[in-house]
Amino acid sequence: MFRIVAYLQEATVQKTLLAGIAAAGLLSASALASDLPTKAAVYKAPIAAPPYNWSGLYVGANFGGGWSNGSLNIPGNNLYGGLTEFIGGVQAGYNFQAGHFLFGVEGDFDGASFSHPVLSNPTLGFVDQHWIGTVAGRVGLVNDQWLVFAKLGGGWVHSDATLNLPGAVWNGSGTGSGWLAGAGIEYGFKPHWTVKLEYDYLGLSNWNSPTIPSVALNRDLQMVKAGINYKFESGVSATAEPSGTSGSAEPSEDLQKASQNPIADLVSVPFQSNTNFNTGPFDRTQEVFNIQPVVPMHLNDDWNLISRTIIPLISQPSPLFDSNTNGVGDITQSLFFSPAHPGALIWGAGPVFTVPSANDPFLGTGKFLFGPTAVFLVTPGHWVVGVLLNNQWSVGGNPLTPAVNSFLAQPFLNYNMAHGWYLTTSPIITSNWLAASGQQWTVPIGGGFGRVFKVGDQPVNAQIAGYYNAIRPTGTSAWQLRATLALLFPVK
User: Fold this and answer.
1) Dihedral sign, CA of 391, 393, 395, 398?
2) Do 151 and 249 share a domain, yes or no?
3) Which DSSP string corresponds to 215-273?
4) Residues 6 or more apart whose Cβ sits within 8 Å of residue 238
5) Cα Rg for the chain, rounded, in angstroms?
6) 101 — phi, psi (to 5°)?
7) Helices within 306-346 (DSSP H only)
8) Does any domain span residue 238?
9) What is the largest CA-CA distance in the chain?
10) Is residue 311 scored above 80 in pLDDT?
11) 381/275 same-domain check
12) CB distance 467 to 443 below 8 Å
């Protein structure tokens, strides 16, 4: 079992996994720091901007993870420890704003991707969840571009179940309904665009099989979702909307610096490939492709909150067969509180949590993780020197999967050159605190180069680097190739 954990530890190059076969999704949080800074730069929020208008119709998309403490309850036994899953879909709603108060209604529909074997043995049966739908009223408090809301309504979940046990053989499909309660925050980062983060609890009645004795499937569901919405009505007046982009062929120096600063006031969407060679007993290639939207939010004139989300798409070599398991891993969310006008020391700190969203047990931990994260850096001359730190512990999720306690430290050193070019090294050092002595640490060495440039009017940051794991757990791949392409959307 430890060999499986070891393969997953370096896969995402950010999280070291503990004992347990499903750890690749957690480690995908390496993306938090892989495009770390070369210099600090902060774009200022517009001065005396008019209040943001939240009223009107909107549509959007969401993604996240869900988990249940549900169980298959046969008298005297509890055979099913719950499920974790990736969820993703669409939503639509309407808001009415009255001063600092908001009232609205919202509906969403999400596909769910999970098939959970009973007792981890597929011959005994499966529990599958296919889709989730909710409709709820929303009430909130508005402060310019910020919205804090609560929601209350109902929802539906469609599930399949197969049970093959002595005296209880059943194959059924059903849709359960129940009540929904949730809360979240939303931020208008563009005149027509908002982003949100919310928690929802969907309480469902038990699903009882027609067998004798009857088997009750508890399906209460908890969800953490991030979303983005398009507002048909602009959030600001027409005169306050930003004008067109700059026509210069080369990005400005400020944009170059901001694109390499993880806590800059700059919207970006990085795509990062982590390729690990000769992984597992069959020397297969492991691929972790991270989608990493970054959205800065202005709390006030003195403080920013930077949201960094990691969505890993994983191809994980099997520890038993000469094949790979493909799918979505665990999604990681970091929030950095950072001064808008830092001094010589630039810093940000806040919470980090990982949602059990993997669609296969080999690709995630099955746990909800939580902990602190921070980044510190200085920028003397052309140099940037700093470190990113975090640690996460398991605080919920499937009770049948192993506990998690993982640490990450990423020192970074960058040198800026002319025309957007830079040299970089950012080894991601991880520790699996629950692993056996001598098998906890992964310490890579290496580096690479990158450049900030424009494709038409679209600023882009591209980087490539290679790393060798000088210290690593037994059986872990030694070499990794990391390549990143980030789309940049500076404040106009």
Assistant:
1) positive
2) no
3) -EE---EEEEEEEEEEESS-SS-GGGS-------SS--HHHHHHHT-TTSS-EEEEEEE
4) none
5) 23
6) -110, 145
7) none
8) no
9) 76
10) yes
11) yes
12) no
Edge-to-edge strand ranges of the sheet holding 72-74: 77-78, 72-74, 216-217, 207-208
pLDDT above 50 for 249: yes
Helix (H) or strand (E) holding 199: strand 193-204
Q: Which residue has the tokens 């949602």?
A: 355
Give the per-residue pLDDT at 409: 93
Considering only CA atoms, which of 351, 411, 487, 334 is closest in space to residue 34?
411
Q: Tokens standing for 64?
A: 């996240």
Give the Cα separation of 5 and 436 in Å (integer).
Answer: 12
Instruction: Say yes or no: 176 and 99 in one domain.
Output: yes
- Do residues 264 and 355 share a domain? yes
Residue 237 lies in a domain: no
Q: Which of 18-27, 67-76, 352-361, 424-433 has the lowest mean pLDDT?
A: 18-27
Over residues 370-413, the pLDDT tens digits come to 999 999 988 888 888 889 999 999 998 877 789 999 999 989 88
3-state helix, strand, coil in the chain (%, to 5): 10, 60, 30
Per residue in 170-225, pLDDT (tens digit) is 777 878 889 999 999 999 988 999 999 899 999 987 777 676 666 667 667 888 88
Count: domains in the chain:
2
The residue range of the domain holding 476 is 2-46+243-489
In CATH, what number is assigned to the domain containing residue 301?
2.40.160.40
Tell me what pLDDT residue 317 has.
87
Q: Which two tokens stand for residue 439?
A: 């098998």
Kindly state whether residues 35 and 128 are assigned to the same domain.
no
298 has pLDDT over 60: yes
Q: Does one domain contain both 156 and 256?
A: no
Q: What residue type is 88 in one-letter code?
A: G
